[in-house]
Amino acid sequence: MNESKRKSSLLPSAQEMAKYQIKSADYITDDDNRNQQVIDDLEQALAGTRQIGYGGLLKIIKKQLKLDDADNGELVNVDGDSLSEPTEAELIIAKWDQQRKNYLVW
Known about the structure:
The protein is mainly alpha-helical and 106 residues long.
């Protein structure tokens, strides 16, 4: 198998694997070069995603409280009350400054 074809198949594999919770013991070996490649692939596959998992007591509480899904649910207005317009003191505006590579807040 040529090297470019092998590399192009790593990203989809990492993306599929990233759907499931994994422990470092599942992919860390004695080979530091291989470990670095696996971690790099995972980092690329998970870029821009939100990984949230509930287990044990948190899973029970989430079910009892009937909480919305963190990816698709309402995370701002969680009590069901309508939101009022923010006052000037509550309003913060931030804009990305490409030159400074940071947000400007005013």
